[in-house]
Amino acid sequence: LVAVSIQHARISRLPEAWKTVQKEVQRRFAKVTASHLPQTLQALWLEIARCITPAPWQQPGTVELYAGSRQSGPEAAVIVRGNTRTVLASHILNGAEVHNLGVAWFFTKYLTQGRFAYSFLVLDDPSDAMDQTTFRDLCRFLETLLRLHRAWSLPLSLVVMLHEDQRALDVARAA
């Protein structure tokens, strides 16, 4: 009976010990992510976002990816860091700018992961929230993407579904 009591006391402490290990692992992951994110995914994402965002120099601050942790677990967010404050991008940017950041993230994910698994890219009206100037920037980016695939002899089939004939013509010219 004493042995069972000791074993019960030892087992009942295990969840608390696991929480300590889990918190330390999350802290270390957050530290590694914070040091590597700006030079890797964030740099690629921002380069693409700047290519398809009109007048990025007029934004109220620097757009960044934030990776941290809260009590509920890890958290990732897009923030705008200004001189005096930091806010979520969705609170300060308009819908079209947020859409462009999302399209840039889609291309970032494709370039870092998707191109190794798929030799095609399908876009369903990525220009939904874009004006004509921004859409032409997107066409130039798609042209660059196709040119890179051709230069490195990488297969890529690009399908872009659009709801406007004029925009479809612009994409066809870029390809």
Structural class: alpha+beta
Reported for the largest beta sheet, the result is:
3 strands, antiparallel
Query: What characteristic shape results from the CA principal axes?
Result: elongated
Widest sheet, order of strands: 1-2-3
Mean pLDDT: 84
User: Whole-number radius of gyration?
Assistant: 23 Å
Structure description:
By secondary structure, the protein is α+β, with helices and mostly antiparallel strands. 59% of the residues lie in helices and 18% in strands. The chain contains six helices and five strands; from the N terminus they run H-H-E-E-E-H-H-E-H-E-H. It has helices at 2-36, 41-52, 89-92, 95-117, 132-151, 165-174; strands spanning 62-70, 73-81, 86-88, 120-124, 157-161. It has a three-stranded antiparallel β-sheet with strand order 1-2-3. The protein has a two-stranded parallel ribbon with strand order 4-5. Strand 1 and strand 2 form a beta hairpin. Helix 2 crosses helix 4 (95-117). The radius of gyration is 23 Å and the shape is elongated. The relative contact order is 0.10. The model has no long low-confidence stretch (mean pLDDT 84).
